What does this fold into?
Amino acid sequence: MKYYLSIDGGGTKTAAVLYDENFQRLAVCVTGSVRANTTDDALIRKHIHTLIETLRLPGLTVEECVGVCDGRLTDAIKSVCAVKRFKTAGELELGLAAAGIFGDGVLALCGTGATVFARLGEKTFVAGGYGAAVADEGSGYYVGRAALIAAIRDSENRGASTALTDLLPLHFGYHGREELRRAVFSIYGRADRSPAACVAGCAPVVVKAAEQGDDAAAAILTEAGRLLGEQTRYLIEANGLPDELPIALSGSMWRGNPILFDAFREAVFARRPARRIVLPKMEPVLGVLARKMYETERQFTEKSVQRLLAEFPEFAFDIHLHKNRDLSSFSSKNPVVGFQSSVVRNPPDGPMKTSFLTTAAQSAAADD
It folds into this structure.
C-alpha cells in the first residue's frame, strides 16, 4: 500500500486526508489553524500534534504530501515520517480543482479570510486577502467584526437596534445583551481559539439573524458580498481576463448564505454579464485528490465526484446547506433556490444551467 497526504490549512481550521493509491480513505483529521497570522504559538503546536497523531503518521513512508501547508507543519511531518515528495499547492489550485476546474479560472475564496485569485496560462493574479489586521473585506472575520460593532453600538444607544445584540452573547455562552461586554472580552486569551477565529466564528450568527429578518445583519452580509464581487470584477478587468474564464467559489462563508451570494453575483454580473459562477461539490482538501485523479485517469466526471464523496462525506460542499444546518426553509428576499445549480449564469433571475466541468479544456470553454 502507498500513502498519500492532502492538507488544506485555513485561517480557522486545518483539514487533512491520508489516502492510498486507489483514493481510498485511510485517515482524516480536522483540527485548528496552524497559520501564524491567526493563531498563537501554543495553539499551533497543539494543532500540529493533533494532526500527526490523528493521522497516525509516525513511522509511515508517504509518497507525496500536497496542499496548503505552513512551514512549521511540513517540518513537523518530516520529523515523524518519511515523505518522498512535498508539493505546496496554493488555495487557488485546490479551490479550482474542488470545482472540477483543472485549467484556467477565477476563485473567490471566502472563509475566515477572503481573497480573489485567478490563473491564466502561466500567470496568476490576486486581489484582497490582506489579513484581519488590515483588510479582509467580505470575509468571515469582516462579517463577524461588523456584527460585533453593530451590537456594541446598539447596546450603547448610538446605533440601530439589532437582534445581534442578543444573539452574539448567547453564541459565546452568556445571557443576552446585558452580558455583551463580557462576551466580547471572552475572545481574548482562550486556550482553544485565537481572537481572529472567535470573531470569524460569529458569522453564522449573522446569517441566522438575517434569516430572522434582522436588517442590520442582512446589510452586513449584503455589503460583504458586494465587496467580494467588486474585488472579483477588479481582478478580471485590471488584468484583461477573458469572459469565458469560470469563477469558482470556495470557503465556508458561502454555505447557506444566499444574501452574500446574491450580492456577490449582482456585483460580478453588473459589468461582466457573460461570466459563469461554478459551485463546487467538495471542499478544497479533496481538490488535491480530484487533480490527482484527473491526471491519473485523464478524466474527472460526476462519477468521480461521487466516488470521492463516498470515501470522504464530511468534505461535501453544498452551497445551499450550512455546514451543520439545513436551510431548505430559508425565507428571505434572496431565496436559496438560486443555489440549485452547479453553474450560475446571468441573468440572476433567469433559468440556470447545470454542468460539472470535467477536463481542462472544458473548464475554459462555455459548455451547454
User: Anything to note?
Assistant: DSSP finds 13 helices and twelve strands in the chain. The first helix runs from residue 41 to 54. Confidence is low (pLDDT under 50) at residues 325-342, 346-368. Residues 15 and 30 are 4 Å apart (CA to CA).
